[in-house]
Amino acid sequence: MADRWEVSGRRAVVATMHGKTAVIAPLMAPLGLTCVACEGLDTDRFGTFVRDVARHGSQTDALLAKAQAALALDPQAHFAIASEGAFGPHPLLGRIPSGLELVALVERHTGRAVIGRDHTLDAHFAQAAVHSADDIAQFIQRSARGGHGWVMMGSRDGPVLAKDIVDPADLHDRALAVIAQSGAAWLETDMRAHRNPTRMAAIGRATADLVRRLQARCPRCSWPGWIGRAEPGRRCAWCDSPTSEPLGSIRICDECGYRETRLDDPDRRAEPAHCPMCNP
Predict the structure, then answer these.
(1) pLDDT for 192-213, tens place per residue?
(2) Domain ranges, ordered by start, for the chain
(3) Half-sphere exposure of residue 254, counting CA atoms within 13 Å on the CB side?
(4) Residue 212, SS3?
(5) At what angle do helices 197-215 and 21-28 cross, to 10 degrees?
(6) Can you say whether residue 117 is alpha, beta or left, with left for phi > 0 and alpha for psi between -120 and 50 degrees?
(7) Mean pLDDT across the stretch 209-224?
(8) How would you label 100-129 residue by residue, b for 16+ Cβ within 10 Å and e otherwise?
(9) Are strands 34-37 and 11-15 parallel, antiparallel or unpaired?
């Protein structure tokens, strides 16, 4: 079934209502894939960043649900492309904000997907409760970036009071009015792609990763996604135990299971700092 993934000369519908086609289409064009925006698709029903519509399931679940909805609205499309972002504290670095962007190409008949990824610390994601003019000014100072927008809510749990705020003075005045009435307001950077150029750039990088995966084909069955991942196990220079340091890379085909391991200088030894025996 690898021939279903021959994208040249075929059509993909992009599941977006926030202008993502402008970034995705040029990156997919060298593959010969024609990308068009999906008309009439309300992607907010799969979840919103301001949480007035909860996302059901995981980030990947929402990603694939968007793609299937786009295919249902465009029966001429061979594929659908969808993206889904998630933002919050970095899983390893604690309170430092990060963003994970997924971009998927989904084949109509099988529902199978190839997914590109971008994980970045440059997520331009900020939230704050503000109680005074000084609070508002501090939030604007750390979150203002050209072309980006803000959202204002009554509290972290809502309701949404205003979207599409792009002028710092407008945000200041709106938030001050809410504080005068209720004592506090909740401010966030707008994480919708058309109001957040930093996120749009991440979507571009995830799309480039998707292209890389589509071009990397299994040597046995030509299925896409023939991408190596690090294989730990390099031997410690002191005690010869296996460590977390990569010994090489491993590739496993998701379709036929073909496996290939590539060793990177197998005689080189790992630093003891990476050894669970020498550095428990």
Answers:
(1) 999 999 999 999 999 999 999 9
(2) 2-123+196-215, 127-190, 229-274
(3) 16
(4) helix
(5) 30
(6) beta
(7) 95
(8) bbbbbbbbbeeebbbbbebbbeebbbbbbe
(9) parallel
By CB atoms closer than 10 A (0-12, 13-18, 19+), residue 217 is: middle
The phi and psi torsions of 77 (rounded to 5 degrees) equal -80, 135
Question: Does the pTM exceed 0.90?
Answer: no
- CATH fold, domain 2-123+196-215, is Maf protein (3.90.950)
Place of tokens 């679940």: 61
Q: Which residues of 171-193 are buried (b: 16+ CB within 10 A; e: fewer)?
A: bbebbbebbeeeeebbbbbbbbb
DSSP-based three-state secondary structure for 159:
coil
32 - beta bridge partners?
none
Tokens of 104: 């998927």
Binned at pLDDT 50, 70 and 90, residue 32 comes out as very high
Cβ distance 18 to 202 under 8 Å?
no
